[in-house]
Specification:
Orotidine 5'-phosphate decarboxylase; TIM Barrel; 13 helices; orotidine-5'-phosphate decarboxylase activity; single chain; decarboxylase; lyase; globular; alpha/beta
């Protein structure tokens, strides 16, 4: 079984260091001429997968925009994930789950188990009940060759009070990064990956020099770095260079509205423009 990190590294090399979100905002659905219901969500998501298959490293469905429609939305999400699997497109399901014990185990089975219709190649996880609270998801991801992105240094202003807080002189973000590094080291020792570990971090592209100030060595994680904030949120080449520096070869830059706003007919060109912009920085 090829681990998620190695699969992502291969997709990144072939299709560029770009991930496009599948975020069916009501405003975007309206702009695409789609209804804000299960059918509209399905059409929206399937169009993104169809148009961008083989042109981006991964797609990232945002679960919240599907869940707001209840069972109809979740059914649409299942169909989008299935279409991506069929098309050979890696999926990062943006669910940001975090809990303890059997509840965390339930979330893990929902998104990382081979038998689940909601299974993705990787998920985003919130570690702020403690890194080890994620153990059920981390272990299941490892057993099934999937991956996880741990929220570490996010760009929302409220995050700083938690992520940059220090205990015994070490920031919370640095402890989360160290946890991810340990997971990757264990997987590598077991011969489970060669190019990139399966456990990565979510690091906002708009955070500036925060990583260094928080004592986080991004390169030492040995896993992928998911960088939201490109395009509509204001980050570009200069911000990517400032934030990621020597860890640039591990970054997958993520954009949602900046690409999706181009509409179904403009997706290809918008994704290619994003790929060209960030490739000049991240693969140089």
């Amino acid at each position: 079984m090829t681990g998620f990190g190695d699969r992502l590294a291969a997709a990144r090399a072939e299709n560029g260091p770009v991930c496009v979100g599948i975020d069916p905002h009501p405003e975007l659905l309206a702009a695409w001429g789609l209804s804000d219901d299960g059918d509209g969500l399905r059409t929206f998501g399937l169009a993104v997968v169809e148009r961008l298959a083989g042109k981006v490293a991964a797609v990232k469905p945002q679960s919240a925009f599907f869940e707001r429609h209840g069972s109809a939305g979740v059914a649409a999400l299942e169909d989008v994930l299935a279409a991506a699997r069929e098309a050979g497109v890696l999926t990062i399901l943006d669910v940001k789950r975090g809990d303890i014990g059997s509840t965390m185990g339930g979330y893990a089975e929902a998104y990382l188990d081979d038998a689940s219709p909601l299974r993705a190649d990787a998920v985003t996880l919130s570690p702020y009940l403690g890194f080890e609270s994620l153990r059920p998801a981390l272990d299941l991801a490892r057993r099934t060759g999937r991956g996880a992105f741990i929220l570490a240094l996010t760009s929302n202003p409220e995050a700083a009070a938690v992520q940059r807080a220090r205990h015994d002189g070490v920031s919370v973000a640095a402890r989360m990064a160290a946890g991810a590094a340990d997971e990757n080291a264990a997987a590598r020792a077991a011969g489970e990956w060669a190019r990139l570990g399966p456990v990565g971090l979510v690091v906002g592209a708009t955070i500036g020099p925060t990583a260094g100030a928080a004592g986080v060595d991004l390169a030492a994680v040995d896993g992928p770095l998911l960088a939201p904030g490109i395009g509509a949120q204001g980050a570009g080449a200069a911000e990517l260079t400032e934030v990621f520096s020597t860890a640039r070869e591990r970054v997958v830059a993520s954009s949602s509205r900046g690409v999706l706003a181009a509409g179904p007919e403009g997706l290809d060109a918008a994704a290619e423009a994003l790929r060209s912009e960030v490739s000049a920085v991240l693969t140089s």
